[in-house]
Amino acid sequence: MDYCCNRMMLVAPQVSHANWEYAVFRTPALDPWHLAQALIANSPLPLETVLLVDSSLVNPYYKQLVYAAQTGGISMHTIYQSELSQLYGRAARAAYDAASLSQGDTELIDDAIAIVDESDLYSKEKLLVGLFQVKGDMTAAYTIIDSMRTALPDDGYWKVQGLLADLQRQSQEPSDVDANGIALLQQVAADEKVGCGEAQAWLMMLGEEYTEPIILPTTEKRLKPESNSNRSFVWHPLAVFPNPSKGPLTVVYEVPDAVADAHIKVMNSLGQLVLQQQVRGQGLVQLDLSRVHTGLLVIGLYYDGHLIGTEKAQIVR
Question: Which of 2, 18, 82, 215 is most buried (CB neighbours < 10 A)?
Answer without folding.
Answer: 2
